[in-house]
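CORE FACILITY INTAKE
Project code: CF-77B
Contact: R.S. (postdoc)
Sample description: multi-component assembly, three entities in total
Requested service: structural model of the whole complex
Turnaround: standard
Below are the sequence entries exactly as provided by the requester. Do not edit them.
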Amino acid sequence: MRGKDTMDKRLDLSRFISRDNNILQLLVITALIFALMSWLEPNKFLRYYNFESISFIFPELGIVAIAMMLAMLTGGIDLSVIGIANLAGILAGVFFTRIYPGDPSAGMAGEIARVAAGVMLALGVGLIAGTLNGLLIAKGRITPILATLGTGQMFTGLCMVLTGGPAIVGFPAYWGLIGNGKLFGIAVPLLLFLAVAVLIAVMLTKTPFGLNLFLIGTNPRAAVFAGLKTERMVLWSYMLSGTLAALAGIVLSGRTNAAKSDYGNSYLLQAVLICVLGGTNPAGGRGTVLGIAIAVIALMLLASGFQMMRFSNHLIDFIWGGFLLLVMVLNAFRNRE
Amino acid sequence: MAEPLIELRGVTKRFPGMTALDAIDFRIAPAEILCLAGENGSGKSTLIKIVSGVYAYDEGELLIDGAPVSGFSPRAAIAAGVQVIYQDFSLFPSLTVAENLAMGRLLSENRRLVAPAECQRLGAEALARLDVTMDLDARVGSLSTADRQIVAIARALMSRTRLLIMDEPTTALTGREVERLFAIVREIKAKGIAVLFVSHKMREMLEISERICVFRNGRKVEEGPTAEFTEGRITRAMTGQDIGQERYVWSGDIAAEPRLSVRALGVGERVHDVSFDLRAGEIVGLSGLLGSGRTELALALFGMEPGHRGEVRMDGAPLKLETVQQAVEAGIAYVPEDRLSEGLFMTQSIARNMVASAIDRVTHGPFLSDGEATALAERTVADMRIATTDVDKQVGKLSGGNQQRVIIGRWLLTGPRVLILNGPTVGVDIGSKAEIHRRIRDLAVKDGLAVLMISDDVPELLQNCNRILLMHRGAIEADLDPRGLEEDDIHTRLKTLR
Amino acid sequence: MDRLKTLLRRSETAVFVIVVLIMVLIGAINPAFWQADNLFNLLRANVIIGIMALSVLTVMISGGIDVSFPAFAAAAMYLTVLAMEATGYQGVVLPFIGATLIGLVCGLFNAVFISTFRMIPLIVTLGSASVVRGLLLGLVGTSIVNIDRMPPALIAFGRSSLDIGGAKLSAMVFVYLGLAVLVWLFLTRTMTGRSIFAYGDDAESAKRVGFNTRRTVYVAYGLAGALAGFAGLLHSSMIWLANPRDFVGYELDVIAAVVLGGASIFGGRGSVLGTVLGVFLLVLIKNSLIIMRIDNTWQGVVVGCVIVLATALTAWRDRKAAA
């Protein structure tokens, strides 16, 4: 009997490690990248300025990756996130420049109200776009790949229609604060990302909705037989994904003070890469926000290091692609054992 | 007896942690129809895989035409004339009948090109051999299950086949299709080909086979000419125990308001005008051949056939059963047929599998309570006597019987008033089976649950049900009182339904 | 009678009917549509998307999806043109073989990951597209080879045409149709071609019956890459310049066309005829937007709608068939 007990304990321990294996592995990768870059470019990499600029740039990508993960949890994918982000930014831009131009006499309160209206508009667009995806996937039973490929093209197309090609500029100053400002000495985008990450993490691990998504992603058929409201849950997850994508669009257009139909094109690949690296199973049922957060930081450290070494953006794209394939190969090996 | 076509002498096959086959002697003669009977895990699938060269054995000898063979491989098995038809038929729905038939031949000849005319010719020949006609240009995806099976048989017979192995061939067939299959099998035998049937359906074994081999726990426990067997003997040999003498007795009030009352229920073309009552504490069996509409009936009661006809009342109050949620709300629980694809979330924990249908019970305000979920799961684990100490363990790591108990336990957490079980002990070992039966009877007696038990397993129904409904072509044909009935009586009834 | 019924139920028939209806409609609005010049231009616009659609079709039949072919096409085109420029080579046969081989190698690269590591095709091809495009732009260069630097032989080849009733029909249309026939023969008349269908239906059964499924995957993705490489070079010879950033976003048009043609992302289903019709329909829709003077910025929206509608219809039809 005692032998059995100790064996159970050992099993417990090994299970604990394997469960958090991915997080551990990620932390090691991040530390390695950090050490490597500090060693290669100690003067540039280890400066406060470098980390500060990373804290402004990575949140938009992190939010997109969380949006992507939400779709992946139920075994889907959201290829329209970039389209939604740009559409949200552009519509806000159209709103600020053509529909509700700034009125100097309105004062600070008026400006803040205007920006708030713009934020609501952008988030609303994301919600509507996400609802469209969700309806097509949950009610129309279209494969997520094709549904979001199609809607993504529709959203990007609408961006083209609205802008005619060139970027929209002329966002209000307070809008810029969302992407460039600091609060208590911390980058506003970083604060936004942290808020989103905590919110989504709590939602996934502590609410019925999160549990529903994990169960549906593990076995959608069994979910129906267990009486789960699968259609509604999948719809909600894409609505949330769309809204988050729009938030990323707000941050992006705030940071660059512009919105364009082809911004952030490489984000799609990076978002998928971050999900996979962060331990999200693209077939559904597994994924953590913590994994995403660490993965996005690891990639950003890597990218900033490469930029300091004067790698071109193209070569960095190459590295992203190669990294994605490598991580998948490693996962394949690990699953084989 | 003629010289055996294939013979195994003292063959043993071990897997890590278990002996799948233990010193088996086995033989099949040319043109013999042999039935291999046994429960899941008895070793019959391992035997098929050894005879078809998929598995290598650890000890013993394999002889073909009396000569020992070494290094038996799938290729060697095919060369020796062994063909296996698996349950899924291994056909290609987007290719035509002719192509599906011709593909094996073309592959074995290492062809590079496919000529439609040749496919047609080969396909026509193959079908002619079975004396059936079919549209050779039809895509296999558009055929019925029975027709697909015929294509699979025709394909298997295209090479110089001497032994045809069929794995549970009647599972997906309706009564009349089974007759057609048996006619074809006799035709095959007449050509001098041996047929090995793997089945757990007693009546069919008795009807088609000449000899029966029964396996249990990796051993051959009975063997002999079919004439020497009765269904009871096969069952005893398969399960190693007599069917419990102690049958379920219901002592409720027949005049009381029924728990569930079904009137004129219909689903499309598949279920017509079904009416029956289910009272608290009753365990009512539901049997019938595949395609009889029994699963559709259960799904309609579980809200999965929106747009069904008729009326269902719970304790006298009419129910709306258009969604699963409505059914669950009304207190109807359904343990599905296919545990793996319809029941379990394999990579999730036991606790999560347990609370899946009762998430509301462990939710406070907007939040889940992990502690409560664990406590609830632990209580159910103890209650269902599931062999685990840790509810955070993946459910996939449990045995079939324990997994089934997780699903039953899941439904008990919803406080059900009617429990529908579809194949409650399929693929469950004997010990677990008895435990599950005991628990179900307990639930009926102590908690006054009304149970509808759908099963092919006649002894199971006889032992546990106080009434047995037989379904045929979408309608209820008989409402039997099992008292005084024996297995053979039920089988006779089922037989007349063909 | 049954034959007629099955003919009517085929998705190719539906696409064909839609094509005819749209043509009649546009012709009624603007009779200039029926002029040989316009029709020939329309056909010419089918060529590149069409060849790429054949590439995606092969992959979709095997049950996969490919978003890497635009990058492969760009790489094959740019590398070949640079090599021709550097060596001053004057022929066209060798360059096309070269471009096809570059595409083939890239396609096999996909196959390694998909077959050996059983990775999800969408994610593999997203990654490989980024790898190939990144290497091309990062190591080889970003400058456009324009008309004065383009090898004359390529330009001449791309210009070759047939004079039919005073209007010029690009010979490339025949190259495309020839390839379509070859791919059709391959898919329907060779064992390997049939094995792609079988693999898309059920990989496990294909293995059990005796197909070499590993080879099937390599052939499907290899062929897809080769076709993309060929299409890439053909494209530059038709527009007289080679831009390494070209073909961005082509995956959408091409996948839309293939889905329109009745292929299923779940594998096993799809035909060359359907794909050719699907490509024609897509090009026709985009072309008619121009004729109807709709701003060309709307094209993206329309293509997106086409993908969504086509897949929604297929999903609906499958569900009806299953019921």
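Facility notes:
- The radius of gyration of chain A is 21 Å.
- Residues 316 and 322 of chain A are 10 Å apart (CA to CA).
Invoice: internal transfer
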